[in-house]
Amino acid sequence: MAEPIVAGVAESDLGETPDRNWLDNAGIATVRALEDAGLALSDVDGVAVAGGDDYMPALVLSEYLDLEEPSLLEGTEIGGSSFEHFCGHVGDAMARGRADVVVIAYGSTSKTGPGRDRSLEVTHPVDGFLRPTGLFRPPGAYAMAAKRHMHEYGTTEEQLAEIAVSTREWASMNPKAAHQEEITVGDVLESRPVAEPFNLLDCCLVSDGGGAVVLVSAGKARELGVPEISVAGVASTSTHRQDISEMPDMTTTGAAVTGPKAFDEAGITPADVDVAQLYDSFTYTALVTLEELGFCENGEGGSFVEGGTTAPGGELPMNTQGGGLSYCHPGHFGVFVLIEAVRQLRGDYTGDRQVDGAEVAVAHGTGGVLSSSSTVVLRREA
Amino acid sequence: MTGAESGPVEDRRDSWEGPVPVPTGANSEFWAATLEGELVHQHCEECGTAQLYPRAVCTDCGAVDPPFEASSGVGEVYTYTVCHVPGEPGFGDRTPYVVAAVDLEEGPRLLALVDCDPDRVEIGMALEVTFWQVSDEAALPVFVPQ
To answer: Which stretches make up the ChsH2 rubredoxin-like zinc ribbon domain (chain B) (predicted)?
Structure first.
């Protein structure tokens, strides 16, 4: 059996949590995910955490949870894809017997918290070239990539809007989703402009909240008797950091590298994927990821998503909890991508919300401004 | 540096309310040149790589402190966006405004404001540099249609 096994998943409360800080949300998600796995804090060998408002977040969270002699402390920060990236490191550590129970955790107060540094004296050597341009980041950076894609391939705003519409259809079945009322392509195009070509409904939410995923070794999984959802393939890469102009080709992403690697490791092809959870910070993020992971050809993402391909009942169910566009998006969405992939593979849902017989899921994280990519293939073992 | 002017410098120190770059390390020479109306980039003597933003190392061959040389200040729009929401303090009265990734003639790509009617900008449009002096230490490269 491939390791690690996902033994439990959970969110904290989502939306607005004005009485919580990032650690509270990460901590609450952690204990809920442990409960889902049939484990307790005393069983935890380590944490993998990104984001938060702290330097050294792995130490801060370990202290907050009062972990005893943790053997795995992972705090690699590569943005929203960090959580997919962690799956590889945790698997390596488990293969060497260094840990049996590791919690991937995230918490944020993106909505009600203090917000970003708005100081006018920019001493950061790279930000000094970015912030004075006034570019609204991250939306403007993704918008520039989308513009180039539209220029080279003829992708349209209507096609981008299709993703928002299909994703909202999924959200309409998720009681935890921030927005559940159905929308049309016209609604997206008529929502207020943010950074061309994006209107408001092309952009993810800004939420408070946290999420956690409990990874366990094969031995521990057998002991627990949990459904065996394995991490069958992982790959990560990056192309740049925050400066979108450093991206060599704005019509592609690192997913073109990580998709094939993760699929190879898992021994699958895109055709084997039953359900896709692809980071959707913006409609374009999901569109370009569909192309790069090989669900369609480069440049054909626009026509691929037309007609509800990724909606309930469509050929490729995608972002089945309503995604960052409609469910929640507390800064880093990567942990929620994993959570929903696992729930679909476990068959946690009923009715149209459940993708029937889902055995293979892909969870893809995108961090920074299309900067980092990390693909995870999850499989329900027979 | 050659001392050749790439574009005119307009003094906006009194009116600018946005973020201001503070020169440090390898980028100090870049910002100093902007005050003279000169857009510079690094051009590695060892391998010929042209790069921005400035770095203490050549990203191709690793040579330390690749020297600066003047750019013509001419480039074209690789891609752009029109910001309808201000992305930084001091930009509230400016919306909608154009930010582009500009491919300079010499190769490097630079993120910059484009001072033109948002309806006019398009990918591939030829641009030339001007400068807005926003502090005693730096003038921002701002492009206009050629």
So the answer is: 31-63
- The residue segments making up the domain with residue A350 are 5-113+204-380
Question: Does A270 reside within a domain?
Answer: yes
C-alpha closest to that of A289 among A191, A192, A146: A146
Find residue B128's DSSP bridge partners: B74, B144
Please indicate if any CB of chain A lies within 8 Å of the CB of B98.
no
Q: Does A193 touch chain B (CB under 8 A)?
A: yes
Contact check, Cβ <8 Å, B99/A125: no
Please list every residue in chain A whose beta carbon sits closer than 8 Å to the beta carbon of residue B86.
134, 136
What distance in Å separates the CA atoms of residue A30 and residue A47, rounded to the nearest whole number?
A: 10
Contact criterion met (CB below 8 Å) for A149 and B81:
no
Residue of B nearest to A130 (CA): B111
**Is residue A222 situated within a structural domain?**
yes
- Mark yes or no for CB contact A195/B94 under 8 Å: no
Q: How many domains does chain A have?
A: 1
What is the ipTM, given to two decimal places? 0.96
User: What residues pair up with B145 in beta bridges, in sequence order?
Assistant: B127
Question: Is A1's Cβ below 8 Å from some Cβ in B?
Answer: no
Residue A26 lies in a domain: yes
Query: Would you state the torsion angle of the CA atoms of residues A336, A340, A342, A348, taken in this order, to the nearest 10 degrees?
Result: 140
Q: Which of A245, A246, A282, A370 to mutate to test the interface with B (most CBs of B within 10 A)?
A: A245
Closest approach of A305 to chain B, Cα-based (Å) = 23
Report, as residue numbers or ranges, the catalytic residues of A. Answer: 279, 327
Q: Residue A246 is part of a domain; what is its CATH number?
A: 3.40.47.10
Joined together, the tokens standing for residue A234 give 């992982």
**pLDDT values of chain A reduced to their tens digit, one per residue, 382 residues:** 578 999 999 999 999 999 999 999 999 999 999 999 999 999 999 999 998 778 899 999 999 999 999 999 999 999 999 999 999 999 999 999 999 999 999 999 999 998 777 889 999 999 999 999 999 999 999 999 999 999 999 999 999 999 999 999 999 999 999 999 999 999 999 999 999 999 999 999 999 999 999 999 999 999 999 999 999 999 999 999 988 999 999 999 999 999 999 999 999 999 999 999 999 999 999 999 999 999 999 999 999 999 999 999 999 999 999 999 999 999 999 999 999 999 999 999 999 999 999 999 999 999 999 999 999 999 999 7
Write down all domains in chain B, each with its CATH number in brackets.
9-145 (2.40.50.840)
User: B56 at the A interface (CB within 8 A)?
Assistant: no
Residue A119 lies in a domain: no
Which tokens in the block code for residue A162?
């299709």
